[in-house]
Write a structure and sequence with these properties.
The protein starts with a strand and ends in a 6-residue tail after the last strand. With about 190 residues, the chain is an alpha+beta fold. Strands 1, 2, 3, 4, 5, 6, 7, 8 and 9 form a nine-stranded mixed sheet that branches. The chain has one domain: Gcn5-related N-acetyltransferase (GNAT) (Aminopeptidase, 3-Layer(aba) Sandwich), CATH 3.40.630.
């Protein structure tokens, strides 16, 4: 039986950051970031007073000395038609390619989604994915709003997402229409 452990971004250790970074590099081979760059990013979050880093959580599954599944969440306030909406950002969901199919990705994702409680805060999770079918089975749905990032000084009206499939959880959330300002870079 695999157990999920939860870690706060503000309490991450160099050893934990390296274990997470190694898994992420194995899973996201198309990313240009190295293990060292990922470790530095995680450790820089520790001392930050940015609300995204203060609310950041990581859900991991260990197998011996190695992390075999991971998901990260944090709270971000997006802007839709001049109204602010807090969302639970879901990022870096992955499981070791050598043992995929054991349900570990589902485990860490469901654990992350537990933060989105009925009537709770935030009430919805927003994320990008290249594998929407995986998330549709977990009560998620695609949204088709245009997205911008007005904090991007060079291209504020450009789509900030890398993936073209943007989803929310839960499926039944009354998602607003109109252009969404992601209010920061993609995740």
């Amino acid at each position: 039986m695999h157990e999920i452990k939860e870690y706060l971004d503000i309490g991450i250790t160099p050893e934990l950051a390296e274990s997470i970074a190694v898994l992420c590099c194995r899973c996201f081979e198309d990313s240009k970031r190295t293990v060292g760059e990922r470790v530095n990013e995680m450790l820089e979050m520790k001392g930050s007073d940015d609300p995204e880093h203060i609310t950041g959580r990581r859900f991991v599954v260990w197998q011996g000395e190695q992390i075999v599944a991971h998901a990260r969440t944090f709270v971000r306030e997006i802007i839709v038609e001049d109204q602010r909406l807090p969302v639970l950002a879901l990022a870096a969901v992955c499981s070791d390619p050598k043992i995929r199919g054991m349900g570990l990705g589902v485990m860490v994702t469901n654990k992350a989604f537990e933060q989105v409680a009925v009537g709770g805060w935030p009430a919805v999770s927003l994320f990008q994915t290249p594998v929407p079918n995986f998330y549709q089975k977990l009560n998620c749905r695609l949204v088709t709003n245009p997205f911008v990032n007005r904090r991007n000084a060079q291209e504020p009206e450009a789509n900030p997402w890398r993936d073209d499939k943007i989803m929310i959880y839960p499926n039944g959330f009354a998602w607003p229409e109109g252009t969404v300002d992601l209010n920061g870079s993609d995740y």
